[in-house]
């Protein structure tokens, strides 16, 4: 097998952001509606600061309104909930996102549960989890798994039905929604995790592998079915032998590239899709809140 094709998430995300910007221009022109996204950051985690800055910048570039709230690391749960309630009530705000992780004193589930489900552009509220699980068209879908799905649909030209997919990882943010999205595409889906008895045997059957375990280069090339399509959700910073650090995914990229038909790189694969899908979800939420047909994006 020759080296796998690279699924260029960075380029796909740029195209999606352009389509979102076109949709926003149409909403302004035809309905006088400018979607607004509020992002709340609690604390000073350096990676979260970068993600939040990029969210604000890309929101503005798409022609939407961006509202950014930076709260100190010592913020109480009560104060954060008050901010969420304020944003729920603000008609200018169509989408609300609280950046994760949150400081220890705050109950993440309580905060996510306080967000108006129709403004929950992260898709983490139990109402949206339930909507996705039951196949409701009203679901707001978590951004990272939605990004993975868009890349897969694009690669397969929409023909995902009947494919065998293995999702490695069972988190609420990626693994479980990914399972539901692939099932809705009529894939046969297995969710593997830390207690899976024989991961190589599971992966050896898979036409599609979505790796989201958070363990650097855990999935080995020799475990894959030749010709598999590999979506690597992991973003892990590791030490280089010569000093300094580099980013790697949850898949051993060099080994997997020799076996797979196509693979997403890290960086430049799934990561950029997360914010592009956040913008898409904000437009979707704004349209639904205003009874406007959702533009194709
Ligand atoms: N409320 C949320 N919190 C978090 C989410 C989320 O979807 N909602 N996801 C992650 C962080 N995240 C966005 O918030 C995010 C992660 C990675 C990227 C990205 O573009 N990664 C680049 C590499 C970046 C680097 O150099 O470090 C890539 O993979 O190419 C964007 C957004 C956790 N929190």
Write structural notes for this entry.
Pathway: One-carbon metabolism; tetrahydrofolate interconversion. Belongs to the tetrahydrofolate dehydrogenase/cyclohydrolase family. It catalyses: (6R)-5,10-methenyltetrahydrofolate + H2O = (6R)-10-formyltetrahydrofolate + H(+); (6R)-5,10-methylene-5,6,7,8-tetrahydrofolate + NADP(+) = (6R)-5,10-methenyltetrahydrofolate + NADPH. One of its GO terms (cellular component) is cytosol. By secondary structure, this protein is an alpha/beta fold. It folds into 2 domains: 87 residues, 3-Layer(aba) Sandwich (Rossmann fold), CATH 3.40.50; 131 residues, NAD(P)-binding Rossmann-like Domain (Rossmann fold), CATH 3.40.50.720. The chain contains 10 helices and 11 strands. The strands form 3 sheets. The chain has a 6-stranded parallel β-sheet with strand order 1-11-8-7-5-6. The two termini are 35 Å apart. The model has no long low-confidence stretch (mean pLDDT 97).
How would you summarize the topology of this molecule?
Layout: E1 5-6, H1 9-31, E2 36-42, H2 46-61, E3 65-71, H3 77-89, E4 95-98, H4 108-114, H5 126-133, H6 143-155, E5 164-168, H7 175-184, E6 188-192, H8 199-203, E7 208-211, E8 229-232, E9 236-239, E10 245-248, H9 253-257, E11 262-263, H10 271-289
Parallel strand pairs: 1-11, 2-3, 2-4, 5-6, 5-7, 7-8, 8-11
Antiparallel strand pairs: 9-10
Helix pairs in contact: 1-10, 2-10, 6-7, 6-10
Ligand LMY7XDAE is lined by residues 51, 97-100, 122, 143-144, 235, 247, 266-268, 271-272, 274-275.
Domain Tetrahydrofolate dehydrogenase/cyclohydrolase catalytic: 7-122
GO molecular function, one term: methenyltetrahydrofolate cyclohydrolase activity
InterPro entries: Aminoacid_DH-like_N_sf, NAD(P)-bd_dom_sf, THF_DH/CycHdrlase, THF_DH/CycHdrlase_cat_dom, THF_DH/CycHdrlase_CS, THF_DH/CycHdrlase_NAD-bd_dom
